Amino acid sequence: MNKEIVVSGIRSTGDLHLGNYFGAMKNYVKMQHEYPCFFFVADYHSLTTHPDPAALKNNVYKVLAENIACGLDPEKVTLYVQSDIPEIPELYLMLNMMAYKGELEKTASFKEKARSQPDNVNAGLLTYPTLMSADILIHKGQYVPVGKDQEQHLEMARNFAQRFNHRYGETFPEPLAFNFGTQLVKIPSLDGSGKMSKSVNENATIYLSDSDDIILRKIKKAKSDQGPAEPNSEMPDYIQNLFLLMELVSAADTVEKFKQDYNECNIRYGDLKIQLADDMVRFVAPIREKTHALKNDTALLQKIMKDGKEKARASASSTLAEARKNMGIHYYC
Ligand code: TYM
């Protein structure tokens, strides 16, 4: 077992999709055998969009079930719900004193949200990166398996850790976005525009809960064209995206065959899509079925949450005590 501490979370905002799986979850499952891991459902982060309380609860259970269905072993990792750990909001408050309005306003995710939901630009959105930093630093996390879209947030977490250490003495390691030494992943949407996402572009996103029929329908509708006119032509983005998805779920020789067809101008996108849908169904169906079985086992999920909470609080309270002491917040000794 390596010694670096791994921390990562997924928001409880809706159904998980291939982006969440290949950007984050796949690494969680791999890393659980190699590192001490803390994985959580980021329910506080999902409050920025004011979810309906019943839907929030349902989503927290569902994300937990999906984590386990994807292969996380709650006996091996600490699996918990963010709001069960009161030390996180306390560290968030401290880090907010070190986060400047200008840098928070410049964050790409904040600018994007401010544009897409102009009537709900709340302080939670602005300070989203400080809450994320608190999530990581509360366990002295060093490796953070995330997708490409979280890269800037990790850079900010490093800055906040560095500022804290500089001002109050060495307290936190500087966490790194982690993908086993390779580029962070971005899973594109099926319509060739942007990335797969929980809430935008639902028809161009494949969810881990999608039925076989829906998967087939979505893939059939994916953007394609008449095929290349010249051998060895450069692939347009949306065709590259189909190949990227195929590389994730299909056998290497299948991908090779379609690439060769493309290069020789023999490609039939109808066949490619049917092959991709078949392989995708083979990948998604077992996760979907396992989630379905787990999601209503409230007793089991509550036991997992409680065990996770206990382990996560033990780690969090020790870090918080150190941070408080270093800041001078220790008045009774
Ligand atoms: P969330 O729920 O939006 O995404 C969860 C994880 O899935 C990755 N991801 C993707 N990766 C590749 N391609 C995509 N299309 C794609 N869409 C999503 C995200 O990069 C993420 O790793 N802010 C985090 C939640 C969080 C967190 C943290 C993560 C809160 N605190 C502390 C790490 C450490 C988020 O947006 O999750």
Which characteristics define this entry?
333 residues; mainly alpha; Rossmann fold; Tyrosyl-Transfer RNA Synthetase; 3-stranded parallel beta sheet; 5 strands; globular
Short description:
The protein is mostly helical. 55% of the residues lie in helices and 7% in strands. The strands form two sheets. The chain has a three-stranded parallel β-sheet with strand order 1-2-3. A two-stranded parallel sheet has the order 4-5.
Structure characterization notes:
There is one protein chain. This protein has helices at 18-31, 43-46, 53-69, 87-96, 101-106, 108-116, 123-126, 128-137, 151-168, 212-221, 237-249, 252-263, 269-295, 298-327, and strands spanning 6-11, 37-42, 78-81, 143-145, 176-178. The protein has a three-stranded parallel β-sheet with strand order 1-2-3. By secondary structure, the chain is mostly helical. It has two domains: 6-185 and 297-327, Rossmann fold, CATH 3.40.50; 202-292, Tyrosyl-Transfer RNA Synthetase, CATH 1.10.240.
Secondary structure layout:
Layout: E1 6-11, H1 18-31, E2 37-42, H2 43-46, H3 53-69, E3 78-81, H4 87-96, H5 101-106, H6 108-116, H7 123-126, H8 128-137, E4 143-145, H9 151-168, E5 176-178, H10 212-221, H11 237-249, H12 252-263, H13 269-295, H14 298-327
Parallel strand pairs: 1-2, 2-3, 4-5
Helix pairs in contact: 3-13, 4-8, 4-14, 8-9, 10-13, 11-13
Bound molecules: tryptophanyl-5'AMP.
